[in-house]
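Dear colleague,

Following up on Tuesday's group meeting, I ran the structure prediction for the three-component complex that the binding team flagged. I've pasted the input sequences exactly as they went in, so you can double-check that nothing got truncated or mislabelled along the way. The structure tokens for the whole assembly follow below. Feel free to forward this to whoever is handling the docking comparison.

Inputs:
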Amino acid sequence: MAERRTRKPNGRSSIYLGADGLWHGWVTVGVKQDGSLDRRHVKRKTEKSATQAVQKLEKDRDAGKSRKAGRSPTVQDWMTVYLDTIAVQKVAPRTYDDYWSKTRNWIIPLLGQHRLDRLEAEHLDAMYGSMFRAKLAPSHVLKVHRILSRALKIAVRRGKVSRNVAELIDPPTADRVEQQHLSRGESRKVLAACAGRRNGARWSVGLACGLRQGEVLGLRWQYVDLETGDVRIWWQAQRNTWRHGCTDAHACGSAFHKKPCKRKCDLHKSTCPRPCPPGCVSHARHCPDRHGGGVVFRKPKGTGRRTITLPGPLIALLRQQRIRQETERQAAGSTWQDWDLVFAQPNGRPIDHRKDWQEWGQLLRTAKVRYVRPHDARHTAGTLLAEQGVHVRTIQAILGHSDVRTTEGYTHVSSQMTRDAAELMGSALWSE
DNA sequence: ATTAGGCCAGCCGGTCTGCT
DNA sequence: AGCAGACCGGCTGGCCTAAT
């Protein structure tokens, strides 16, 4: 006759007093990767606390919040997994690099060693405090928060942790900044200074049409109709970082890994670059099989492709540009690389954005106009159009915003417009 | 050997979209 | 309308290489 069974039915939790004098609890929360049962064990001094611990495990299990089997990863571990296996599939290369940059500089140094399941909202608050003390802009702190929050959200979804602590706190707030733009007079001065400069039309186009930097630098002749003045803004040039194409990225970069500088370093002017971490896999630009980097053409952000029409004087400028470029091409001979770019280096290759930025500064100095950022040329276009009374929807189409609210932010009501309005009001109310 | 310019990459922080 | 997420612009240091 079989002995009477005393054990609980399958799947039920058990609590018993062990031979060691402690109360043991076992809770089956699911099945492990290998198919075996995933049973969680707790050990307590009293029956009561063991029961409580078991109830907690059951509650988490029933709510679908049980941690996956195995030791919980640290924040550093998880960020690495999240970025390298999840984010890398989903986001654009530059975004991926950007996420890594913030993770490497802030999240890992300040939170990296925390176990993911033991991370508390207070730890995040402390990190943001450190960042603010380091004088980082609120927008930057906010972004780090969002990257972390996103990574934790995925961690919750994958059962690595039971809750997203980033959602428990108020994210840092970032104010909108005041946009700068040139006045009509200043714009005219800049346009005048463009005349005769090599690639001077680049800035005329930027100012008059409000193109983004990448859109101008990526503009190709095949998308420009010099007869009608129609320009198809279908692509923007962007510089991607290179990726290793070899099998051993660390060895590949061996000649370039940076060691810490001596205390008295006379090689670097201001700050010495930080040394490479052990096992560094950077320096992909030197990889003989490098890929994915350099100048690439991408769809513009915003509404994507759009077509604008150039003002008459600008068509003439671009015709001149074409002729000059032909001369340069002849001069370059076999060194000419044909990218079909409207604005290029003397050898036909794309203009580096750094060079472009320097040009803008020089141009403003030549024109004796106060410094504004290159991107402010875009704001200027929006504002000038608004001043001419162009409808905001039209400006939106020209600038390529998918949301008119963005355009409204660009095209501030200028002092000229308020003056005009005042004049109209004055004549409406007081003139004969 | 030195210099100038092109090129690359890192980082901060602003911009823009899509979702709700 | 506000927010999370994605993406990009701006700026800079420094390396590399060709020209001087």
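The first strand of chain A starts at residue 14 and ends at 17.

Cheers,
M.
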